[in-house]
Amino acid sequence: MNKFFIIFSLIIIVSSCGTNNTKLNDISIRESIEILASDEFEGRAPGTEGGKLTKNYIAKFYKENSLTPLKNTYFLDVPAVNINLQDKSFFSISFRNNDQKLEPGKDIVFWSKRTTEYEKIRASDLVFVGYGVVAPEYNWNDYDGIDVKGKTVVMLINDPGFITENPRLFNGRAMTYYGRWVYKFEEAARQGAAGAIIIHDTEAASYPWSVIESSWMGPQLSSQRTPEQITPVQLEGWIHKDKLNELLEFTGFNYQSLEEIALTKTFKPFTLRGMQLNSDIYNDVNYFKSHNMAAIKKGSSRPDEIILFTAHWDHMGINKSEEGDNDNIYNGAVDNATGVAVILELAKRFSTIKTDRSILFLATTLEESGLIGSEYFANNSPVPLKNIVAGFNFDAVFPSGATNDMVVIGYGSSELEDLLEEELTNQGRYINPDPRPESGLFYRSDHISFAKKGVPMLWSNNGSDLVEGGRDAGFNLSYDYTANHYHQPSDEYSPDWTMVGINQTVDTVFNTSLKLANSDFWPNWYEGNEFKSIRDASRSGK
Hints:
The protein is α/β, with parallel strands linked by helices.
């Protein structure tokens, strides 16, 4: 399978096949996408004028459809911080006192999540720690036997099961949470490292270097940390695999050999002798509040029981380093103006009917910065999470022609899949399990913040099996999006988009959730799922 066929490989994208649907929901969804992804909204970055326009648009939509705000407001505070790396910052690797500065964007991306104006690292030994994973349940510890305090750890992306495809090693080809970059940086901080560098490999990361460059160059947004949270390492970053190989030329190692060593049963972390990091990090630090946008349609007979719909409203804003003739607005039409448009369409539909249970619509902020908005809501929920019956997440609902299937991310997780399958069977369609579980998508969108609290969540989108063109057509479209448009300025709305696939998704989820909203069924995670015990404890009041 082509290495670029990743994050959206399981769902298809813009298709010119078919004619534009003229149904009212088509028009409504299209209009919302066009507005949210317009240049006027400036890429919807939190803390910007474009972010403000986005939030006001969503609030206006909620109000016009007579939805009730939570806590007397649609705007739920999310304390955040904007950390902008100044140009005078530098990153260099010395080998036997031969110092080489790395070029930001081309060779390295680096930053600090510490809310300080200056961080200094000098002569920090580079230590290879394999995958940077400490997982007692898998009897795995990449930090065993070494003290990394003051040192800089270098690690592989993904987890040990990726290369081997051994189902007894982690989850085999399917990425676990241990494979995610956010975990790796957090674990490095717990170990006391000064710096943490992830080696980028397109196949293992499931996205090309261009995504690294566009996502981590420029201002970094994060949550305001509380005293009980662990302090991040001084420096986080990604290094290009080719640059790493160049630096390792005289050491006897390269990326491939490090990958092989990391998987040996006798692996122990080791210092890359003679290699040290030097860096000055100068930050502009600005505190601000972003907002999750929440509204509820109260249930008629069991209002305390809640069905949740989520989609993140934020994207990456404007990259000022790309000023000039180049388009520097990251409009995020597919990712995720489509998802917001879908929950707004569902909000409009549910606003006109009575349901036994309540329906909560949550447009989250700071998803692109590490699921911060959804995590903050889950940790500070204005409604008891044990009362949330189930949730449906929408992230990049691709405009496409009709499909024969729907793809379920993290297939085999919860009883929500049974409800979805029942509805799809009625339509003559089918569930398509995630064909690329190694990309770790299940851990990469807002639903996971609620799943970790036990709430059954479903992330399903229109499928990859096109009525016109089949799976090959879906593959080709997915490849093009991932390689050329994901987290790039070219992710733009087009009036040529067909909305048939999106309408299918809306209709399917609406019918599924409507049945759930008028039933007394409480879906749970399947037996053996990592979140089932959390849900059971929550529902039992423990």
